[in-house]
Write the structure tokens for this entry.
Amino acid sequence: MSGEPESEFLGLVVHELRSPIAVIVGLAATLEGRRHELTEEQVDESLRRIHAQGGQLANLVDDLLDLAQVEAGRFRVVLESVDLADACRRALEDAPPPRRGSVELALPEGLWVSADPARLEQVLVNLLTNAYRYGGGRVRVEATRTSKEVLLSVSDDGSGVPAELAERLFEKFSRQTSDGHGAGLGLAIVHGLVDAFGGRVWYEPGQPNGACFLMSLCEAEPRLDNRSVGSDRQRWGEGVSKILVVDDESNMRFLLRMVFETEGFEVVEAHHGAAALERVKEELPDLIVTDLMMPVMNGRDLVERLRDDPATAGIPIIVISSSRNIELTGADAALRKPFDLDELLDTARSLSRKDAA
């Protein structure tokens, strides 16, 4: 591939990074230096926008990492039987339609496909977000069974894709609108993911207008287990009082300390695995939250050492990492950075109840 498109792509990515960074830095500086001059509403709105822009940055970084894995041929998926209707409903929860938009679902129950559950939802969220951004006010998601495949379509009533762009839609350098908004990563990742599922994805003009993205997936046997998503917001186990936070980043330790201390717990810190083992020798914690990538001793080695010691083998452990494909490596649960704080607390509550039982 020539250097010119690579330079164009790099320029787009830098633009997409600089915009939210500028907002975050500017708003944070304003809150720090002039908070006493701001109204309560302005403070709340500034914090909301910082949170939203941080999420935008995290999504872009995730997209770049995914694309790098796809292009290097190292993309890993774990194929399971997935209820397609459930996956679409969860994707709608993650990517609800805009205020003036609507989504029509035509999804027969009992359609099961072979896919990685989390990655399939990522594909659906990308297609829905694409339809919201470039389509009209109405989006339709439809699925049918054809032979041994399941065909799913996401269509909108917008202006459609210009002919000169249609052939390059699933390339990372494509731009879907004349104004060039976005770095053009979403559909390239969708293509790589669906290909990893053993399926295919393509574009057709909508009828009578708009855009239609179609995806064929291998049909799968229904899963017999009854796994549910989410958790109840029950109380902590009575035996939990001290939490050990292990991370080499001081800002991350500060965040975790603040979250757990607002729940009324004592928090102790360690900046790598070896320091954590010394902390554990002083007093056993009731729960450990640890990063994976750290100097001196990483999180995987820490978990292995803790599990090998009878005195610490039963302590609940949550690992956190920037990687999308986190292996539990002996831990009880895993969360990906940036994690949802409620999800972190729910996971910790669940483990503490298990430990107290």
User: Anything to note?
Assistant: The chain has three domains: 3-72, 80-218, 242-356. The two ends are 58 Å apart (CA to CA).
